[in-house]
Write a structure and sequence with these properties.
This protein has about 500 residues and is α/β, with parallel strands linked by helices. Helices cover about 50% and strands about 10% of the residues. About 45% of the residues are buried.
């Protein structure tokens, strides 16, 4: 490959990253100029019947706290129906059945619904529950979330507008302070929920439903074809289909629904891979409909950037693979791309804004910024494989993110049978870390400093993700050989 071709490919890849970098900057500016809080709705007078759906699969550690929170919702019991949609294959089913019986004995309208299989995964469970639901509105909470008691009182009034199909709260964090990893995850999610979602809403762009902590108008669900299992992000798919059909989605940044963050790096990696694959699947499914929709160009561009954001990972990985060859031939960063530096400020400003917007005291969490960079580099291989799976149309296999009932700094996941072994992918990550390290040595030898920070970041990133995965897996093995595991071994 000629030097000119290498440089051209490199420049094209950089331009792709620049698009997403500048978009982060634009969304941050929109947030601070316009914010994204919808106008207050009229008070709620006529109380509708609400069905609360709780999809779960092997959630032994969290089912009790989930039901305690949902049954404490401040809403008339004769207007509330609760469905525990349980696809579990372990003792979660027995525990859930016992708890449901206890709450039913107290006069609550709650049902424990089990299917024979897991057809359609979460989307299939929600669809099966909807067929038996009586509610005019359908609220959804995953097993790792705890809705506040006033959730329904604060969300239902927005449905006074007949065009509103979905109202969603902001994700909070039950265990952000559990470890440096969960703190980094909290900051990463805040960038989306505190800045991006309100900014898109304020600018009239599509707002995604994130799968938990929201409520749907039943007629909207039925009008757009309901839940679909042809992507692993059925929530993102449904929210875009609804908005393409003319329904509005409302995001409430002040209505916080806290959830549990993955404490295990392999669980976090699994979660991110699922989101990456599902986003690209949704892009493949709906991109043409979005392009052809009767929507302003701004809405279309923002929608395409939103659905395709995980392309950043394979693009960044390709750049890493190309850099040593460019350096070996004496190449350097093209001077025409010197303006790229401003784009790199986009994600940084967005992340800082997400903490500043909550409270100046939250700025202490910005100490995890270096770790966010490292994680972004280290996860690029697993996310790239997920993107390729989506592009190739490979079959779906929904892999749950394990939860361990962690709150604050309390709890221990290592003794749970839900704790994941390390992925075989760690060896490929270590190989890429070595590749990046050798590339860095080559660049130092060639006195090519333009690319050195990039390859060093990836050398550290892959080593960190793989190393923590191996260390946590070893810790899990040691703890599980001790007596007194936190869940029955018959799981």
């Amino acid at each position: 490959m000629s030097m000119r071709l290498l440089t051209s490919v490199y420049s094209a890849l950089i331009i792709v990253l620049v698009l997403y970098g500048y978009n982060s900057l634009i969304l941050s500016l929109i947030y601070w100029i316009r914010r994204g809080r919808p106008p207050a709705p009229p008070p709620l007078h006529d109380l509708p019947l609400v069905t609360v759906q709780l999809p779960m699969y092997n959630e032994y550690h969290t089912v009790e706290r989930l039901l305690a929170a949902v049954t404490a919702l401040d809403y008339p019991t004769d207007k509330l129906e609760i469905q525990v949609l349980d696809d579990s294959t372990d003792m979660t089913a027995q525990l859930a059945e016992q708890l449901v019986a206890q709450y039913r004995a107290r006069g609550l309208n709650i049902a424990h619904l089990c299917r024979d299989g897991r057809d359609g995964f979460k989307a299939g469970a929600l669809t099966a529950g909807l067929a038996r639901a009586r509610g005019e509105f359908i609220a959804v909470f995953d097993a790792d979330f705890l809705p506040p008691p006033d959730f329904l009182w604060r969300s239902l009034p927005y449905f006074a507008d007949p065009k509103v199909g979905c109202v969603e709260g902001r994700w909070g964090h039950l265990n952000a302070d559990y470890s440096i990893l969960t703190e980094a995850e909290a900051v990463l999610l805040d960038a989306h929920f505190v800045i991006e979602q309100p900014a898109r809403q304020a600018a009239g762009a599509f707002v995604s439903f994130n799968g938990s902590g929201g409520i749907w108008r039943r007629t909207c669900l039925e009008a757009v074809g309901g839940w679909s299992a042809d992507t692993v992000t059925e929530d993102l798919d449904l929210s875009y289909r609804a908005q393409l059909a003319g329904w509005r989605s409302i995001f409430l940044p002040d209505l916080v629904v806290p959830g549990e963050l993955p404490a295990q790096v392999d669980a976090f990696k699994r979660q991110q891979s699922r989101w990456a694959k599902g986003s690209i699947q949704t892009l493949r499914k709906l991109a043409w409909a979005l392009v052809c929709a009767r929507q302003p160009l701004w809405v279309k561009v923002q929608g395409l950037l939103h659905l395709s954001v995980y392309f950043v990972q394979p693009v960044a990985l390709l750049i890493l693979l190309l850099l040593p060859f460019i350096s070996l031939r004496g190449g350097s960063a093209p001077r025409a791309l010197s303006w790229v530096g401003l784009a790199t400020l986009g994600p940084l400003i967005l992340t800082v804004s997400s903490q500043l917007a909550q409270s100046p005291r939250r700025l202490r969490r910005l100490r995890v910024l270096p770790l966010l960079l490292i994680l972004g580099a280290g996860l690029s291989l697993s996310n790239t494989l997920a993107v390729l799976e989506a592009l190739l149309g490979l079959p779906n296999h929904f892999e749950r993110t394990p939860k361990f009932n962690l709150r604050g700094t309390e709890g221990d996941w290592t003794q749970s049978v839900y704790a994941l072994p390390h992925s075989p992918l760690v060896w490929a990550e270590l190989a890429l870390s070595l590749y990046a390290g050798l590339s860095a040595a080559l660049m130092i030898q060639k006195h090519n400093w333009d690319f050195l920070p990039w390859v060093l970041l990836y050398a550290v990133g892959f080593a960190y993700v793989a190393g923590v995965s191996l260390l946590q897996s070893r810790r899990r093995q040691v703890q599980q050989h001790k007596p007194g595991t936190s869940a029955p071994s018959s799981f």
